[in-house]
Sequence to fold (189 residues):
Amino acid sequence: MRPLNRIILLATLLLVSIGPIFAQKEDNTAKFPVRLSIPPSASLSLVSAGDSSSSTKGNINQQVISPNSISKTWLNYSSIVESGSTNVICVSMIFGDLPAEVEISVKAGPDAGAGQGKVGTPSDMVILSDYPQAIITNIGTCFTGQGANKGHLLTYNWKIIPDINSESLTKEDIKNLRIGVLYTFMTGE
Fold:
Protein backbone atom coordinates (compact mmCIF):
# COMPACT_ATOMS: atom_id res chain seq x y z
CA MET A 1 0.00 0.00 0.00
CA ARG A 2 1.35 3.40 -0.93
CA PRO A 3 2.15 5.95 1.83
CA LEU A 4 -0.58 8.36 0.69
CA ASN A 5 -3.19 5.60 0.82
CA ARG A 6 -2.06 4.67 4.33
CA ILE A 7 -2.48 8.27 5.51
CA ILE A 8 -5.96 8.47 3.96
CA LEU A 9 -6.92 5.12 5.55
CA LEU A 10 -5.62 6.19 9.00
CA ALA A 11 -7.39 9.56 8.74
CA THR A 12 -10.65 7.84 7.80
CA LEU A 13 -10.36 5.36 10.69
CA LEU A 14 -9.56 8.20 13.10
CA LEU A 15 -12.59 10.23 11.99
CA VAL A 16 -14.85 7.18 12.24
CA SER A 17 -13.60 6.36 15.76
CA ILE A 18 -13.78 9.90 17.24
CA GLY A 19 -16.90 10.99 15.40
CA PRO A 20 -19.27 9.55 18.05
CA ILE A 21 -17.45 11.49 20.78
CA PHE A 22 -18.30 14.83 19.18
CA ALA A 23 -21.79 13.77 18.14
CA GLN A 24 -22.99 12.40 21.49
CA LYS A 25 -25.64 15.08 22.03
CA GLU A 26 -27.10 17.79 19.94
CA ASP A 27 -26.21 20.50 22.48
CA ASN A 28 -22.57 19.35 22.76
CA THR A 29 -22.68 18.74 26.51
CA ALA A 30 -21.63 15.76 28.52
CA LYS A 31 -22.32 14.95 32.17
CA PHE A 32 -19.77 13.38 34.47
CA PRO A 33 -20.31 12.54 38.17
CA VAL A 34 -18.03 14.55 40.46
CA ARG A 35 -17.41 13.62 44.07
CA LEU A 36 -15.76 16.16 46.34
CA SER A 37 -14.44 15.15 49.74
CA ILE A 38 -13.07 17.59 52.32
CA PRO A 39 -11.18 16.08 55.27
CA PRO A 40 -12.37 16.94 58.79
CA SER A 41 -10.65 19.98 60.26
CA ALA A 42 -11.18 22.65 62.89
CA SER A 43 -9.67 25.96 63.94
CA LEU A 44 -10.45 28.49 66.62
CA SER A 45 -9.38 31.97 67.58
CA LEU A 46 -9.92 34.35 70.47
CA VAL A 47 -10.52 38.03 69.84
CA SER A 48 -9.68 39.97 72.98
CA ALA A 49 -10.08 43.54 74.10
CA GLY A 50 -8.75 44.91 77.33
CA ASP A 51 -6.40 43.11 79.68
CA SER A 52 -5.82 39.75 77.98
CA SER A 53 -3.70 38.32 75.22
CA SER A 54 -3.92 35.20 73.11
CA SER A 55 -1.96 33.07 70.67
CA THR A 56 -3.29 30.55 68.17
CA LYS A 57 -1.97 27.32 66.70
CA GLY A 58 -4.62 25.61 64.55
CA ASN A 59 -7.18 23.94 66.78
CA ILE A 60 -5.57 25.17 70.03
CA ASN A 61 -5.68 28.69 71.43
CA GLN A 62 -3.98 29.96 74.56
CA GLN A 63 -5.07 33.07 76.42
CA VAL A 64 -3.61 34.94 79.39
CA ILE A 65 -6.35 36.45 81.55
CA SER A 66 -6.57 38.70 84.59
CA PRO A 67 -9.51 39.89 86.72
CA ASN A 68 -9.95 42.70 84.18
CA SER A 69 -10.74 40.11 81.45
CA ILE A 70 -14.35 39.88 82.55
CA SER A 71 -16.31 39.80 79.28
CA LYS A 72 -14.18 41.15 76.50
CA THR A 73 -13.25 37.99 74.58
CA TRP A 74 -15.02 36.46 71.58
CA LEU A 75 -14.46 32.80 70.68
CA ASN A 76 -14.54 32.30 66.88
CA TYR A 77 -14.24 28.93 65.17
CA SER A 78 -14.73 26.95 61.99
CA SER A 79 -15.30 23.23 61.82
CA ILE A 80 -15.66 20.51 59.18
CA VAL A 81 -16.85 17.15 60.49
CA GLU A 82 -17.63 13.80 58.93
CA SER A 83 -21.27 12.83 58.63
CA GLY A 84 -22.69 11.80 62.00
CA SER A 85 -19.93 13.26 64.15
CA THR A 86 -19.44 16.52 66.05
CA ASN A 87 -16.66 18.52 67.67
CA VAL A 88 -16.29 19.94 71.18
CA ILE A 89 -14.28 22.91 72.47
CA CYS A 90 -12.72 22.31 75.89
CA VAL A 91 -11.18 24.80 78.30
CA SER A 92 -8.52 24.33 81.01
CA MET A 93 -5.99 26.31 83.05
CA ILE A 94 -2.43 25.74 81.91
CA PHE A 95 -0.28 28.08 84.00
CA GLY A 96 -0.35 30.67 86.75
CA ASP A 97 -0.28 30.63 90.53
CA LEU A 98 -3.95 30.68 91.43
CA PRO A 99 -4.35 30.88 95.23
CA ALA A 100 -6.64 28.26 96.77
CA GLU A 101 -8.97 31.07 97.89
CA VAL A 102 -9.69 32.16 94.30
CA GLU A 103 -12.06 30.47 91.87
CA ILE A 104 -12.32 31.43 88.20
CA SER A 105 -15.31 30.41 86.11
CA VAL A 106 -16.08 31.05 82.46
CA LYS A 107 -19.35 31.05 80.56
CA ALA A 108 -19.75 31.04 76.78
CA GLY A 109 -22.75 33.00 75.56
CA PRO A 110 -24.96 31.94 72.64
CA ASP A 111 -23.59 32.23 69.11
CA ALA A 112 -23.93 35.80 67.79
CA GLY A 113 -25.40 34.53 64.50
CA ALA A 114 -22.83 36.04 62.13
CA GLY A 115 -21.77 32.71 60.56
CA GLN A 116 -23.45 29.67 59.05
CA GLY A 117 -23.83 25.96 59.61
CA LYS A 118 -24.32 23.90 62.75
CA VAL A 119 -22.66 26.02 65.43
CA GLY A 120 -22.15 24.56 68.89
CA THR A 121 -24.18 24.73 72.07
CA PRO A 122 -22.61 26.52 75.08
CA SER A 123 -22.29 24.53 78.31
CA ASP A 124 -23.24 25.86 81.71
CA MET A 125 -20.69 27.89 83.66
CA VAL A 126 -17.34 26.03 83.84
CA ILE A 127 -15.06 26.36 86.89
CA LEU A 128 -11.53 26.42 85.50
CA SER A 129 -9.17 23.64 86.51
CA ASP A 130 -6.16 21.79 85.10
CA TYR A 131 -8.57 19.23 83.59
CA PRO A 132 -10.09 20.06 80.15
CA GLN A 133 -13.86 20.61 80.36
CA ALA A 134 -16.38 21.07 77.54
CA ILE A 135 -17.46 24.68 77.11
CA ILE A 136 -19.10 24.33 73.65
CA THR A 137 -20.53 21.01 72.46
CA ASN A 138 -22.32 19.54 69.45
CA ILE A 139 -20.34 21.53 66.84
CA GLY A 140 -21.02 20.43 63.28
CA THR A 141 -19.75 21.77 59.99
CA CYS A 142 -19.89 25.54 60.41
CA PHE A 143 -18.12 28.84 60.85
CA THR A 144 -18.97 31.63 63.29
CA GLY A 145 -17.33 34.50 61.45
CA GLN A 146 -14.14 36.24 62.58
CA GLY A 147 -13.64 39.13 64.95
CA ALA A 148 -15.47 40.87 67.75
CA ASN A 149 -19.24 40.37 67.97
CA LYS A 150 -18.96 37.03 66.15
CA GLY A 151 -18.99 33.57 67.69
CA HIS A 152 -19.48 33.23 71.44
CA LEU A 153 -18.80 35.94 74.04
CA LEU A 154 -16.74 34.54 76.93
CA THR A 155 -17.50 35.91 80.39
CA TYR A 156 -15.00 35.25 83.19
CA ASN A 157 -15.92 35.48 86.86
CA TRP A 158 -13.25 35.73 89.56
CA LYS A 159 -14.32 35.22 93.16
CA ILE A 160 -12.84 34.64 96.59
CA ILE A 161 -14.16 31.47 98.19
CA PRO A 162 -15.52 32.56 101.61
CA ASP A 163 -14.97 29.25 103.45
CA ILE A 164 -11.20 29.37 102.99
CA ASN A 165 -8.98 31.69 105.00
CA SER A 166 -9.08 34.70 102.65
CA GLU A 167 -7.84 37.25 105.15
CA SER A 168 -4.32 36.94 103.76
CA LEU A 169 -5.51 37.69 100.23
CA THR A 170 -6.28 41.28 99.27
CA LYS A 171 -8.16 42.63 96.27
CA GLU A 172 -4.86 44.07 95.08
CA ASP A 173 -3.33 40.55 95.14
CA ILE A 174 -6.15 39.27 92.94
CA LYS A 175 -5.92 42.26 90.61
CA ASN A 176 -2.32 41.35 89.76
CA LEU A 177 -2.95 37.65 88.96
CA ARG A 178 -2.29 36.35 85.43
CA ILE A 179 -3.63 32.92 84.49
CA GLY A 180 -3.10 30.93 81.28
CA VAL A 181 -6.22 29.39 79.78
CA LEU A 182 -6.21 26.87 76.94
CA TYR A 183 -9.08 26.33 74.48
CA THR A 184 -8.86 23.11 72.43
CA PHE A 185 -10.99 21.52 69.69
CA MET A 186 -11.66 17.82 70.33
CA THR A 187 -13.67 15.22 68.46
CA GLY A 188 -17.09 14.81 70.05
CA GLU A 189 -19.39 11.90 69.30
